[in-house]
């Protein structure tokens, strides 16, 4: 008999949105430690998903189904994690910056971060700097993720960071940026904390930024 | 005299049957009538409502009779004229005619001296335009880049100002907004000799992009309204990613893209009945491994062929795509992907095939890719021109004259045809091994680079009128003032 942890990782890899929360509940009913369910079950599964994706053995839609089932599991697990005093991995506020309407990029990064266990608040596209600031106040995220697909809207990332600084919130959040024309050098220049070149590396980066990787 | 005789003068290509095309057509009508699109432009929504569309908040649904009427109003055939009156540079859009040109707005460019990838700058614009002007199989001009070294709102204005004097082939212009659309129009109209003269002989086409899925953005609509009011031929082209911002299936992609494009058609025809309208868009797959929109995918060619057939079925010209690649450099991948999509596009007779010269999935423009594709297009065009069959080409008499053991080299028949029956490459090497060795064993890549540098060193495009030069200076100054005022 495989353990609940093993079965959890398997259904995460399968992307089974129905079985994951049921198994999480079963684990809780059997008295397993919530943090163990997360670390030894869900996360182990998602790590394997990441590895398979990198090898080309899994495709984006499958990865996203796994991420979605991870979130379904977390839904059940989250109150117990909080009650047990375990630290949640974190919250991300994500949006495509002002003037920019490209959105599939940010959706993919967001979903991959959800797969890594983050809670995601999606602000959509064409997001004004002030809206980022408000969202930080309202949701108190650990990370702000910004996407820009145009050389002309990249500057809006800088403005947004400035607005966050001016609101006195810069040290409350880590900021990560990405998008086709963005690179690490640009990210550094505007004072972001990190840059990701694609969705999986975005999720890895997010983990690193909260000290979870 | 032949009677009851059918001629296929070129290679015939048809993928979808009438039944299938009708089914796709009904699908588009259904989407527009029952789902509709969000239109983020108050005036456009008013125009649509007056025309008979149903408006509910942002959402606009269009009854099928209105779409059919709009399709009826848009011409299948029209001409875009060379600014200098050179008839060889006119583009006659119509059945059976495929034209080719570069794409717009890549952030990067392959430097023509160093061959390195770097940001696209203002000085690259004349280079691209000159290459377009000189290459025999490139018919229209786009700049392959976003000018990065001017004020960020003026990229399109500087781009047009740089292209216009450097090619007399018609330009497909894009812009950010109403203001820079007006800048561009001023330049084109100056050369044409006024708005009325421009309307008779339009010398550029305007290009706008709605957002997939199912959104007409303010910018796209505003530019469309500008173009329609000024009777500028118009391209309205979405860019859905199959499996991401569009359905995963080719048929679904074609339906969604057509619906997005025809929202623009309906507004355009309501403003300016009979406005030349070219439907889009760029259809390809969101690669489920690398997460890029693949510009070198076979599905791009396939979906583009499908939407071309739908466009032609309903009597519209289409904005085709080809000659592009996901490769980062001028290599075998770039040649395979670019050539096959050029050939496939030529087979469909898609009216304006753009993105020739795109590399790295639209991130980097390359005149080297453009020059290599010029060769692929020439090659394709020889094939699509087909086999001519008549008394003279059948050559039965010539065969009798020559008889067994003779040869054809002295025959008048040979002399009459060898230049037109055969295609002669500019870049592909056909010399024998010794000659090729003596000439320095140049690879395709070497020859492409040499041809580009050769053209740039020698080609002289026909000049614009001195008045237009003055207008360009004025437009640029006024544009600079405008952004200063805003700041
Ligand atoms: C699809 C597309 C569109 C669609 C967008 C539809 C939509 N719903 O998103 C439409 C047609 C609307 C569009 C419009 C325009 N576009 Co566009 N578009 C593209 C295209 C072809 C693909 C983008 C895409 O979705 N890729 C797939 C996604 C998954 O990849 P990605 O975006 O790169 O994101 C990945 C990474 O970058 C990273 N990432 C992204 N964000 C973040 C954030 C964080 C925090 C992290 C860690 C990582 C990360 O992870 C993602 C997943 O792996 C690109 C070409 C290209 N190669 O990018 C041009 C492109 C970006 N567009 C371009 C342009 C110019 C425009 C327009 C200005 C064109 C015009 N004149 O109308 C308008 C601008 C509209 C606006 N104001 O935003 C240029 C940009 C050039 C430049 N100089 O900046 C490009 C490069 C194409 C080109 N050569 O013209 N476009």
Describe what this molecule looks like in 3D.
- The complex is a heterodimer of chains A (213) and B (487).
- In chain A, strands 2-1-3-4-5 form a five-stranded parallel β-sheet, with helices on both faces.
- By secondary structure, chain A is an alpha/beta fold.
- Chain A has helices at 4-14, 19-29, 34-55, 60-83, 104-115, 129-139, 151-166, 184-189, 199-209, and strands at 91-96, 119-122, 143-147, 174-178, 194-196.
- The mean pLDDT of chain A is 94.
- Chain A folds into two domains: 3-84, Methyltransferase, Methionine Synthase (B12-binding Domains), Chain A, domain 1; 90-209, Cobalamin-binding domain (Rossmann fold, 3-Layer(aba) Sandwich), CATH 3.40.50.280.
- Helices cover 58% and strands 11% of the residues of chain A.
- Chain B is an alpha/beta fold and 487 residues long.
- Among the domains of chain B are: 78-385, Trimethylamine methyltransferase-like (TIM Barrel, Alpha-Beta Barrel), CATH 3.20.20; 391-421, no CATH class.
- Chain B has 18 helices and 19 strands.
- Chain B has helices spanning 18-35, 42-51, 64-73, 124-134, 155-163, 178-192, 195-200, 218-229, 250-271, 298-314, 332-348, 367-385, 391-394, 396-402, 412-421, 433-438, 444-458, 466-486; strands at residues 37-39, 54-56, 59-61, 78-80, 91-93, 99-100, 108-110, 117-119, 171-174, 204-208, 215-216, 234-236, 241-242, 277-279, 284-285, 319-321, 352-354, 358-359, 364-365.
- In chain B, strands 2-3-1-11 form a four-stranded mixed β-sheet. In chain B, strands 8-7-19-18 form a four-stranded mixed β-sheet, with helices on one face.
- In chain B, a hairpin with a 4-residue loop joins strand 18 (358-359) and strand 19 (364-365).
- The mean pLDDT of chain B is 97.
- The structure holds cobalamin.
The oligomeric status of these chains comes to heterodimer
Number of helices of chain A: 9
Low-confidence stretches of chain B at least 5 residues in length (pLDDT < 50)?
Answer: none
Structural class of chain A: alpha/beta
CATH class membership of the largest domain in chain A: Alpha Beta
Secondary-structure-derived class of chain B: alpha/beta
In one word, what is the shape of chain A? Answer: globular
Given the structure, what is the number of helices of chain B? 18
Shape of chain B: globular
Low-confidence stretches of chain A: none
Terminal CA distance of chain A: 31 Å
Q: Which strand order spans the largest sheet of chain B, edge to edge or round the barrel?
A: 2-3-1-11
Number of strands of chain A: 5
